[in-house]
Amino acid sequence: MNRLGTATASRKLWALPRPAESLGPGSVILAHPGSFDHYFLESLVLILEHGPDGTKGVLLNHETPWTVEDLAPDAKMAPFAANAVFLGGDAGRDTITMVHGEFELPGAVEVGQGVYTGGVDAALRAVTEGALPPDRFKFFYKSVEWLPNALPVAITSGTFQVIELSPGFLFGQSGQRSMWAEVREELVKEEAEEAAAALKLESMQRGPSGATDATDAGRSLAAEAGEMVAKLRKQVEGGRAASKALKAEEAALAQAEFDAHEAKVKALVEQIRRDREEGTDAPYDLRILGPDLLAEKARFEARLEAEKRLLDAQLSRDSGIALGLAPEAEGQAAAEAAADPAADGSATAIAALLAYRVFKGNSQWRVRWRGYGAEGDTWESIHVLDTEELRKQAQLLKEQSGA
Fold first, then answer.
1. Which among 181, 225, 168 is positioned nearest to 202, based on CA atoms?
2. Which CATH number applies to 302-400: 3.40.50.10170, 1.10.3720.10, 2.40.50.40, 3.30.1360.30?
3. How many whole angstroms separate alpha carbon 245 and alpha carbon 250?
4. In whole angstroms, how far apart are CA 24 and each of 15, 39, 111?
5. Element (H, E) at 193
6. What are the tens digits of pLDDT across the range 224-255?
7. Is 93 exposed, middle or buried (0-12, 13-18, 19+ CB in 10 A)?
8. What is the enclosing helix (H) or strand (E) of 141?
9. What is the per-residue pLDDT across 151-171, written as a single tens digit (0 to 9) for each?
């Protein structure tokens, strides 16, 4: 393993456009602006599998607040305890996948184009011994999937673009939505350079013969190329300025909403304090927060509780297999989950499933949350329905809908 880290040592950030037909394991696709209104919005996807049975990948720029220690609290994973976990998508088993670029790591399996998975034991040893830093490895929870031929069709239609990313982008620990904008800027710069080079070649091929004419043609060529690069650079700078202005506007709006909420909460606290000082036992009015805010608060808290229970119950069981942990460790986690009466997840939070629909190609079920009325209903995907009984109800609703 004397060449460990050589393929991923560079921190340079670059992006290159690639032809659509180059799509395959190890490729990266970039979502076209404005094509989505969910997790594919401003997303970058690393393709892990692609073939006749469909396509599977992980979202590169959806960092979560969780760490490896949070989702796989096994002492064996201590060298990676502080590594961030990225949300790979909403499909597949509740497992964690380790992705890296270390071709000499024993046990590593090449996905394609310099991207590898597996080799967890060797990676742990290399990090413990100081041969590699832990930030050379990226961890993803779940994945995204496409049906056979669905992704090539989306690429042909312009919804996605096939690109290539530097190891700094691929395996770096930064993975916020802003990464999408950074990659687009790099692509624009690369396309500007390619356009200038193509213009130069074309002008040279059609340029007139003779030393004087050739010199004039060369000067004209340089001027044209310079104008094109300047124009494209101006577009990039304009895009950056627009993006900066939009972020500033969003930040100002968020601050205004926060300030308004804080004012309402402070008023409520002052009311409670006055009631206590006056010795009155009158119940304070939660409606000071407003019906819309209360409904949103109820939906958020119910969903948060359901997803927390889902993670506590399922990730403790499944992460062992995905990370290559010992079977006895996995069995112990499963036994602990089975002994926990709250391990059935949303059984304490979901009151009923009311309807089924297909929204933007995804199956969703209308959920009535326990303790809330119709105003708290939300449409959820199958991963929130974590008990066997809820999944049976979901399948029945789907069949009744004729889907």
1. 225
2. 2.40.50.40
3. 9
4. 17, 22, 9
5. helix 178-206
6. 666 666 666 666 566 656 666 666 676 677 67
7. exposed
8. strand 138-146
9. 999 999 999 999 999 888 888
